[in-house]
Amino acid sequence: MAATYSEFLRGLYEEHLEEASFLYDQRRRLLTDAELSWTQLADFEDRLEAHLDALVVGGDAAADACRRRTTEGDPGELFAAVSAFCRRRQAPLLAAVLKTLDYEDRERTTALTDALKYELPDEWEEFCVGALATANPALVAVLATTLAYRRLPVSDALLRALQSAHPDAAAALLWGVGRTARPATASMVGSFLRSDDRPTAAAAAYAALRLQSADVLGELLAAPADGPRARALAVAGGRRAVPILLAELDRPGSHSEAILALGLLGDLAAVRPLVNLLSDESAAGAAAEALYVITGAPLFEEVIVPDEIDEEELFPGELEEFRRRGDLPRRPDGRPFGTVVRRLSRNASAWAAWLTANASRFIADRRYRSGALYSPAVLLECLKSTTFPKAYRAHVGEELLIRYAVDIAFDVDLPVRAQYRLLRAAESAIDRANRAFDAGRWYFAGRPI
């Protein structure tokens, strides 16, 4: 009987781990799902919390199941197990994971990092800071990300580690320095801007801008706005950045970074070039989203996204037409089989008509966000909004700090309930900042540019 009961408990807690893994994976995917608002993740998080709580209160049987699944389970089970270790303060079990994890497995390393970001006990901070001296750069990256995400006072330790950092850890350390250090330390990260490693260069740019480095902003303005430089200019640059980014639209290749950057900048000089991109199928979706971010124009349309075709499921006649002419099977009413999706209009004529009708709402030398003059209050509304595009929402916290020197410690992957609390707590600071700055003007580090 004892063996049977033991097997029952083992199966019970393994089921909790499997369900937690599924919900963790779902949440990660939905964080960037444009069809789902950020608030709708709360249901998945509540269900995930119930399974994590069961693993915490399950005693030794649950801990043993968690220990086994850290090596035998998938990344989501690793996330759940490490979360339980942290909540139960089981340091030896976490130490075993840190020692044995295959850090070349990116999914498992991400799962470990996520668990520590959300669950690391404050009393383990000293251990994590000491471990920054480890020779394993992947572990250094995990710990640096964790400590900085939690906004712990570890900037001195991160800066020391950065001085002798392995290239594989440099980007995470720079990311952490940008979230925890003082502006006076900006010169220590500026040299990494010229790194051949793109993630390192991008992290250095953001860190230096968060630390109010006007010199780094000058460097960004003096070079082509390719890749990570485009986004850095978007959250820090003034009107001088607009022609630099518009020039990127004339270069061959993908324009997604420059389009997103122009949307963030909100300068009206970008509107017509973005409308022109609506005729380019590869850029139309991004251009429509950027136009919406600038103007707030509610130009939506419903389109049918055809289902993927499995030739084995087609009737002979349908298969012949599909192979000969590419014609998709259709419903009795003539519409193709597929999903109806509501999206921003990609009709250039509709956008041109709206812009002409609403021209009086805009002032040429000001910048805009969602059709309103850009300001701290408007940025807070972007974070609260359930319709503001997720790809842009991820940068709004950076804008508040880099533009207006208002740090609300926001990260886009915070749990929904934590985001609600943070945004409520930020209202008074945003209100003060809103009174201190002129709406629609260009700022960097709290100063006009």
Fold and architecture overview:
The chain has 449 residues and is mostly helical. It has a domain at 1-119. The protein is built from 24 helices and 6 strands. It has helices at residues 2-30, 41-57, 59-72, 75-87, 91-100, 106-119, 125-131, 137-149, 155-163, 167-180, 187-190, 198-210, 214-221, 228-236, 241-248, 256-265, 271-276, 284-295, 316-325, 348-357, 376-384, 390-404, 416-425, 427-436; strands spanning 300-306, 338-344, 368-369, 372-373, 443-444, 447-448. A two-stranded antiparallel ribbon has the order 1-2. A two-stranded antiparallel sheet has the order 3-4. A two-stranded antiparallel sheet has the order 5-6. Helix 7 runs antiparallel to helix 8, helix 10 (167-180) packs parallel to helix 12 (198-210) and helix 16 (256-265) runs parallel beside helix 18. The longest helix has 29 residues, at 2-30. It is globular and about 75 Å long. The model has no long low-confidence stretch (mean pLDDT 92).
